[in-house]
Design brief:
- This protein is α/β, with parallel strands linked by helices.
- It has helices at about 65-75, 90-95, 110-120, 150-155, and strands at about 30, 35, 50, 80-85, 100-105, 125-130, 140-145, 160-170, 180-190, 190-200.
- A hairpin with a 2-residue loop joins strand 1 and strand 2.
- The termini are far apart.
Amino acid sequence: MLAAYPQATAEPVAEGWEDGWKEFHRPATAGGLWIGPPWISPPPEADAVVLDPGRAFGTGAHPTTRACIELLSSLGRGSLLDAGCGSGVVAVAAVRLGFAPVTAVDVDPVAVEVATRTAHANGVVLDAWRADVLVDELPSADVAVANIELGVVEALLARIDARMTVTSGYLASERPEAPGWRAVERIELEGWAADVLARPQ
């Protein structure tokens, strides 16, 4: 193989390289919950969400994730849809906060598998399945969460059946264009933003 690339060099890879990312996966707190990996013990009495994301997106420490969970903690409880669930951290946090039933969907089958594992590891019940949030039929919910790219958030808002949404995945300088929704609350963390939007009464 190297013969095809004469300028390339090869060096041995350090032992344990595949787990090197774990040292960067640090605990976080949001909405009164401790969110962290299974190799770090939560504080005594903490209401914990234990998360090993594996190959799925979402460790719980990113500002958009924390902001979504903070906003969820302030909303009335009910059914919840996590659209683009990644590792399942927001969906599991929602169950911990008292939302039910909780449905988590993602276009990536690996994310659905990891979200299901995350739920089992935390002893919570949620329904996780594969769906393209821009194409497939989605269940109605009292609250929907979408922590994904801004353009996808805007497209999702045009088709989702929910009373309220928590949206994020975009910079503090951006706001979703959301005809038919009114802005209720916004959190900005480390240059990122999350919003609560509601259907007009």
